[in-house]
Specification:
Blueprint: H1 2-21, E1 24-39, E2 45-46, E3 48-60, E4 65-80, E5 86-93, E6 96-101, E7 108-126, E8 138-153, E9 156-167, H2 174-177, E10 181-196
Antiparallel strand pairs: 1-3, 1-10, 2-4, 3-4, 4-5, 4-6, 5-7, 6-7, 7-8, 8-9, 9-10
């Protein structure tokens, strides 16, 4: 019995050690090229460049397969081609991404990601005009993209990635948009670092 418990204890510790060494904590920052589409379509909307930053936790599930949940501040909104007015929203996003990372035998490891990103509005502003809330408090986007990690030293890497977040639900408030459907999307260009933990 004592021997069985000892073997179990050593096995659990060994599994935990391998799992922990395969996991990474990452920090990212960059820009979000935010856009809004409407149905019926509007021709006077333009993209808006906003700041984004956050963290993620990369969990290894297989030789090349990972799960990557994150927490991210994302600035969103839109501009107009016919006026200087701008709509802006501050959001907290929770990316839930599947990740495939490919070993190349060098310091560079390319990867692709795909998943779902729910987000919550924490603030909103509109220049030049005082109006009721323009956007609903919750959004969900399909996320896909890719990038590459560059190993600087064992357990430490820098990375670049590009992500496209496709809006899939109506985020326009009835008070501002009526029956018009509004979907918010964005293309993110990010850089950061990752640490083995």
């Amino acid at each position: 019995m004592k021997m069985s418990l000892k073997v179990l204890f050593v096995s659990v510790i060994g599994f935990w050690s391998v799992s922990a060494s395969a996991n990474n904590l990452g920090i990212l920052a960059g820009v979000n090229l935010s856009s809004v589409s409407t149905n019926p379509a509007s021709t006077n909307l333009s993209s808006s460049t906003k700041l984004t930053f956050g963290v993620y936790y990369e969990m290894k599930l297989g030789d090349w397969f990972y799960f990557e949940p994150g927490l991210q501040y994302v600035g969103a909104g839109t501009g107009f081609t016919t006026t200087t007015d701008k709509l802006s929203a501050d959001t907290i996003a929770i990316p839930l991404l599947a990740k495939a990372k490919f070993a190349t035998g060098s310091m560079v490891s390319p990867f692709i990601v795909a998943g779902l990103t729910p987000s919550f509005k924490i603030g909103e502003s509109q220049t030049n005009v005082t109006s009721p809330s323009n956007f609903k408090s919750f959004n969900t986007q399909l996320t896909f993209g890719g990038g590459a990690e560059f190993e600087v030293s064992p357990g430490f890497a820098v990375e670049v990635r590009g992500l496209y977040n496709l809006g899939i639900i109506n985020v326009g408030s009835t008070a501002s948009f009526g029956t018009v459907t509004v979907k918010a999307s964005g293309f993110q260009i990010l850089g950061g670092v990752a640490f083995a933990i």
